[in-house]
Amino acid sequence: MFGDSSWPIFVIMGVFFVVMILMTVIPQRKQKKKMMEMLNSIQVGDKIMTIGGFVGNIVSIDNEHERYVINVGNEDNPTHVTIIKNAIRAKLDK
Q: What is the pLDDT of residues 38-69, one digit of tens each?
């Protein structure tokens, strides 16, 4: 008799669980897709910010090893740093 009246609660909990999963997975996929598009659009001369907080211009790109050389200094006194592709946080306006 107790088991017959509790099945709607399990259905509601199941639906709630599925909705919560969808609400977390879909935005993460969209964010990952947007990040991949940004990473694939980076070219020499673009200004970027790394996850470590460095801001610099792309000097060269090594697609084979997914590495970038960026200039974090100025034009008169360049300071080149090599970073990996996944270390880029954002592409900044020039």
A: 999 999 999 999 999 999 999 999 999 999 99
